[in-house]
Amino acid sequence: MATKRTKAGASDAVLRALRAFGLAYPGAHTKSPWPGHLDLAVADKTFAYLSLEGEPLRVSCKLPRSGALALMLPFVAPAAYGLGKSGWVAADFADHPPDLDMLKAWLDESYRAQAPKKLLASAPPPPPGPMSAPPARTKPAPRPRPRPRG
Predict the structure, then answer these.
(1) What one-character DSSP code corresponds to residue 73?
(2) Which domain holds residue 113?
């Protein structure tokens, strides 16, 4: 059986990929609110709490749309410190393999929930996937009018 240190080392590549993905968004930067943290923020608002390299992978994001679905996963719980009430979820991958595509979709949703509108205008489209943003709603086509009988 692998040790926690081995599992943490294996998840470091995923952590680096997530950090690079998140930092590619307009205005995104790292934020270290207290020692031992290197999180992702936009306009100084955190959009992803990430574990550090060498530790088991943990990710917390604000998921206003897909949070209920994420909470159905066995390794996801509402985020601590009352953040869960605001749509934040926390995922612990110590005993579960991380799905990079799913986590990128979570970072995207969380970024879009926290970023100012002026930065969202220049953001790339959401990544495709089951937890990506739904298509924009359009007005339905007008119904044809019935012809008069005569």
Answers:
(1) S
(2) 4-120
